[in-house]
Structures are given as C-alpha cells and as structure tokens.
C-alpha cells in the first residue's frame, strides 16, 4: 500500500509538471491567459503529490495495519486527486466547491491516522 501512495504521488507530480509547462505558455505574451482557478488547482495538486510520496515512505514506520492503514492510504489518495479537481470545477460548476470539505476531511483523517500510527509505533518499527 505504501507503494500505491508513492506511485500516486509520482504520477500526479508528472502531471503537475506538464500542467506547469502549459501554464507557463499560457501566461507568456503569446499565450491566451490563465484562469485563476488553474493556479490554485496546480498548487494544491503539487503540494498534495509531494506529500503523497513522503507519506508513502513514512507509513512503513507506523503501527497502522488493516482497516486503519487502508483508510489512511486510500483516503489520502482520494483527497490528493479530488481536492485539486474540485478547485478546478469551481470555474464551471461553483456548487461543486462544497465537496472540497469532504476531500479535506479525508486528508485530515488520513493525517490523523498517520500521526496516531507514528505515536504508537514500537521503536523498532519507528526507526529504520
């Protein structure tokens, strides 16, 4: 499962970098301009993708297993992809922005589980 988190992070970072290249063209003098939500979505996507990679390595050193671990991993992946998508959807369907609270809650639960798993981990698990 930690591999799934890391793959999600790396794939998202690749997409985010391509997105950044496109944005660079769009804000250049020859570009057509850039909607503000695109900048916010790009920033959210980048930060959450980096955090997915880091979390993928860190989860191995926690005491999380079973359902808690699955919720931490899949909750983070869902939030990582859907929160930036919701920010982008604001441009075409503003009421969709309300779902950002749901994706934020998933990310918060994931981080809380990781914090708990780290705090309760045996030293032999917590230290490489």
Automatic annotation (TrEMBL):
InterPro entries: DUF8059. Keywords: Membrane, Transmembrane, Transmembrane helix. The chain crosses the membrane at residues 7-27, 39-59, 71-94, 100-119. Pfam families: DUF8059. Residues 1-124 form the DUF8059 domain. This is DUF8059 domain-containing protein.
């Amino acid at each position: 499962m930690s591999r799934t988190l890391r793959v999600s992070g790396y794939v998202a970072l690749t997409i985010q970098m391509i997105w950044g290249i496109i944005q660079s063209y769009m804000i250049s003098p020859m570009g057509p301009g850039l909607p503000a939500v695109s900048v916010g979505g790009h920033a959210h996507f980048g930060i959450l993708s980096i955090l997915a990679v880091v979390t993928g390595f860190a989860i191995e050193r926690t005491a999380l297993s079973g359902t808690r671990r699955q919720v931490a991993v899949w909750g983070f992946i869902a939030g990582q992809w859907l929160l930036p998508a919701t920010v982008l959807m604001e441009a075409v369907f503003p009421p969709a922005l309300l779902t950002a609270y749901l994706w934020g809650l998933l990310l918060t639960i994931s981080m809380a589980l990781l914090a708990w798993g780290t705090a309760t981990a045996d030293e032999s698990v917590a230290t490489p």
